């Protein structure tokens, strides 16, 4: 099959004939489509960040958006299967997505339609909403490299399926995938709209393997959101303003991996079912011992404030550890490895077999090497008290491209 | 959606135009307002021949449908259960192929093709249920034709009425363009779930016929589509082939298909994906109206 759909050369004349030019011109004026867009056969469209958009994060940057971006209230995460085997099609899909993602992050309709005999180009459910801090983050997995032999030499050696962890009960329906699209926004419909349109435009090239919506709620005035066990999640994250720390923890530095991944990062995603029914019949004291933190303040056990230094060796007057050795925070802290967590809660009806809530955490972490996540997860191992209350049902690992420079497209360096 | 088409459309509309120089931009703004231009273009699209070809096709299908229904009713009333069972899915294929036209008559479609679930949804009871699916129930579940003679007679009467009515149908571009996508939507929503033929499990016959109906419309419009977008033709041809090959896996004998019950979840998912992948570019056929 020859892939020509992206590269079609259209003479300007015939193009003008195809859609009413007057209206299109007026649209540009009205919506402030700014930039110069190259429309050469082999070059992608260029679309610009619209500075006048409301509640907008910029797309063009050293790094992809949606990683150190302040956590939004909603996510729609999709893991896609590719239906092709060549690098060119991957490149075309990424070229096609790039300007669309800019539009989505601008909060603009992708392209208003003029022909009533075809379906609208933009599915439209975000019309009238502003950008709502929409971000779209794209990554690729080890299985993608397995399917595209041409790219074999580009696969970083650390990009492999995550190993099996103790107590994993992975469901194939929520595991793996070749490409991920993480769409986040301060609005569930905006996040979903982004994924829906990106998948739709690549119909026949990709299909959704699994997807999960999620949410976060923030206390008035900001602060760390709570998970469905009511504990604050993400307190120990590196400061997103500390550039040097982020280089140590999150961003792949030159020479640390394949060149195309420099300034990129690894996204580990786990769909973790939280057994709300058992948790809700657990004594409060036991709940706090399970996490190793005070629930309401978020402070480490024995401390007063959320951001007080965690000292896992601190003992009480009887010589007992303040933070039990089997507590979640103790085990996480024992490992030197760190990562940037960016998780969302989910509630998706009930488990058909048990009738229990199918609810939990769509755990997402960013780290410059998968080993950081693996070390922390291994430390939890069989010891983690939290294991009693959670089951890991889904898992995937993706290498997220670096950010895009104006004029380029997602993952361009992969094809050089 | 067909990728090439969308990029073409993206290019063709607002996004591209920013690339034009100011001079070009100025010229364009001076041009005739868009609405007028659109109307002019629309007038220029002449589908007379295509509409006539489609009408001839659909009417021929309805002829066959009536003949086969007549034969089916005869076999049924003669209590030739096995022969009636054999003809049942085959006769229905003519109806399913020309559904965009057959469906234009609101009352008759449910009388001929209504499922018990549809009837009940409308607040009616089993006694109001007529048509093919009731006879399907008689043949496959009840295992007898006795007591269903009146239903068989009614089916033939309704088929005759439909046949008379379709002769007057006004085939419009919309009927063809929307009809093709609707045929696929039929497959996506009821055939793929096995809800159409819950007793006989002959869903794959309807499936195949719906696809053939859509493909026929594509064939008729092909040269017009080619003028606008040759790559869309290629994509559609490839996607129809993919689906045909997928369906061929389930063929049984010369003109039959296996029971839908034998398909695994994986099988139906693959079929569903192929239908959706065909549906997106198929929905772009409307570019011929530009």
TrEMBL record, chain A:
Family matches, as InterPro entries: Dimeric_a/b-barrel, Dyp_perox_C, Dyp_perox_N, Dyp_peroxidase, EfeB/EfeN, TAT_signal
Reactions it catalyzes: heme b + 2 H(+) = protoporphyrin IX + Fe(2+)
GO cellular component, one term: cytosol
UniProt entry tagged with the keyword ATP-binding: no
An example Gene Ontology biological process: iron import into cell
Cofactor binding remark: Binds 1 heme b (iron(II)-protoporphyrin IX) group non-covalently per subunit.
Subcellular location: Cell envelope
Transmembrane segments: 21-40
Residue ranges annotated for the Dyp-type peroxidase N-terminal domain, each copy included: 64-216
Domain (Dyp-type peroxidase C-terminal) ranges: 224-404
Keywords annotated in UniProt: Heme, Iron, Lyase, Membrane, Metal-binding, Oxidoreductase, Peroxidase, Signal, Transmembrane, Transmembrane helix
Names of required cofactors: heme b
MF GO annotations: ferrochelatase activity; heme binding; metal ion binding; peroxidase activity
UniProt KW Metal-binding keyword: yes
Enzyme Commission code(s) on record: 1.11.1.-
Function noted in UniProt: Involved in the recovery of exogenous heme iron. Extracts iron from heme while preserving the protoporphyrin ring intact.
Family listed: Belongs to the DyP-type peroxidase family.
Protein name: Deferrochelatase
Source species: Lysinibacillus alkalisoli
From TrEMBL, chain B:
Imelysin-like domain segment(s): 51-285
Cellular location(s): Cell envelope
One annotated Gene Ontology cellular component of this protein: cell envelope
Segments forming a coiled coil: none
Swiss-Prot/TrEMBL keywords: Lipoprotein, Signal
Segment forming the signal sequence: 1-18
Entries under Gene3D superfamilies matching the protein: M75 peptidase, HXXE motif
Pfam families in the cross-refs: Peptidase_M75 (PF09375)
Major localisation: other
Family matches, as NCBIfam families: EfeO
Family per similarity comment: Belongs to the EfeM/EfeO family.
Protein name in UniProt: Efem/EfeO family lipoprotein
Species in which this protein is naturally found: Lysinibacillus alkalisoli
């Amino acid at each position: 099959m020859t892939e020509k759909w992206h590269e079609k050369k259209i003479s300007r004349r015939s193009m003008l004939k195809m859609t009413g030019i007057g209206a299109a011109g007026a649209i540009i004026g009205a919506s402030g489509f700014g930039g110069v867009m190259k429309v050469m056969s082999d070059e992608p469209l260029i679309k610009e960040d619209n500075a006048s958009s409301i509640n907008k994060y910029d797309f063009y940057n050293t790094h992809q958006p949606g990683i150190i971006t302040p956590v939004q209230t909603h996510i729609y995460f999709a893991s896609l299967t590719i239906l092709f085997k060549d690098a060119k099609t991957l490149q075309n899909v990424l070229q096609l997505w790039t300007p669309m993602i800019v539009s989505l992050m601008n909060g603009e309709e992708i392209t208003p339609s003029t022909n009533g005999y075809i379906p609208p180009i933009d599915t439209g459910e975000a019309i009238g909403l502003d950008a709502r801090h929409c971000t779209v983050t794209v990554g690729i997995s080890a299985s993608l490299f397995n399917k595209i032999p041409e790219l074999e030499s580009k696969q970083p050696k650390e990009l492999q399926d995550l190993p099996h962890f103790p107590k994993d009960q992975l469901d194939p329906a929520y595991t793996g995938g070749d490409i991920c699209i993480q769409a986040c926004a301060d609005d569930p419909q905006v996040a979903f709209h982004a994924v829906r349109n990106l998948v739709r435009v690549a119909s026949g090239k990709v299909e959704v393997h699994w997807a999960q919506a999620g949410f976060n709620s923030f206390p008035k005035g900001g602060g760390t959101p709570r998970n469905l066990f009511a504990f604050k999640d993400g307190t120990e994250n590196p400061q997103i303003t500390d550039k040097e720390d982020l280089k140590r923890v999150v961003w792949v530095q030159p020479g640390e991996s394949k060149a195309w991944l420099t300034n990129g990062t690894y996204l580990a995603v786990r769909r973790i079912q939280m057994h709300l029914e058992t948790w809700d019949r657990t004594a409060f004291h036991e709940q706090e011992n399970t996490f190793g933190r005070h629930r309401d303040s978020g402070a480490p056990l024995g401390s007063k404030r959320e951001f007080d230094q965690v000292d896992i060796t601190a003992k009480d007057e009887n010589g007992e550890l303040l933070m039990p050795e089997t507590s979640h925070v103790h085990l996480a802290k024992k490992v030197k490895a760190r990562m940037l967590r960016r998780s969302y809660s989910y509630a998706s009806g009930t488990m058909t077999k048990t009738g229990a809530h199918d609810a939990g955490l769509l755990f997402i972490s960013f780290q410059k090497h998968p080993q950081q996540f693996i070390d922390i997860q291994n430390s939890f191992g069989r010891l983690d008290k939290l294991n009693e209350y959670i089951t890991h049902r889904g898992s995937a690992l993706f290498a997220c491209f670096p950010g895009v420079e104006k004029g380029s497209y997602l993952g361009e360096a992969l094809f050089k | 959606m067909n990728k090439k088409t969308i990029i073409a459309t993206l290019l063709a509309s607002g996004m591209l135009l920013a690339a034009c120089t100011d001079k070009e931009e100025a010229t364009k703004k001076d041009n005739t307002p868009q609405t007028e231009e659109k109307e002019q273009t629309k007038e220029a699209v002449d589908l007379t021949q295509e509409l006539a070809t489609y009408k001839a096709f659909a009417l021929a299908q309805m002829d066959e449908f009536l003949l086969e229904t007549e034969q089916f009713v005869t076999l049924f009333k003669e209590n030739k259960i096995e022969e009636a069972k054999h003809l049942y899915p085959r006769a229905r294929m003519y109806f399913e192929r020309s559904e965009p036209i057959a469906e234009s008559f609101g009352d008759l479609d449910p009388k001929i093709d209504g499922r018990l679930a549809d009837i009940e949804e409308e607040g009616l009871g089993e006694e109001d249920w007529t048509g093919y699916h009731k006879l399907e129930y008689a043949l496959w579940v009840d295992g007898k034709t006795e007591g269903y003679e009146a239903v068989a007679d009614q089916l033939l009467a309704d088929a005759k009425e439909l046949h008379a009515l379709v002769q007057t149908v006004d085939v419009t571009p919309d009927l063809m363009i929307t009809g093709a996508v609707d045929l696929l939507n039929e497959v996506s929503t009821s055939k793929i779930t096995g809800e159409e033929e819950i007793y006989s499990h002959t869903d794959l016959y309807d499936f195949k016929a719906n696809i053939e109906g859509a493909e026929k419309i594509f064939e008729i419009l092909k040269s017009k589509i080619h003028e606008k977008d040759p790559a869309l033709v290629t994509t559609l041809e490839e996607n129809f082939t993919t689906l045909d090959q997928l369906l061929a896996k389930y063929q049984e004998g010369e003109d039959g298909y296996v029971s839908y019950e034998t398909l695994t979840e994986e099988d139906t998912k693959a079929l569903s994906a192929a239908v959706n992948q065909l549906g997106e570019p198929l929905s772009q056929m409307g570019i011929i109206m530009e």
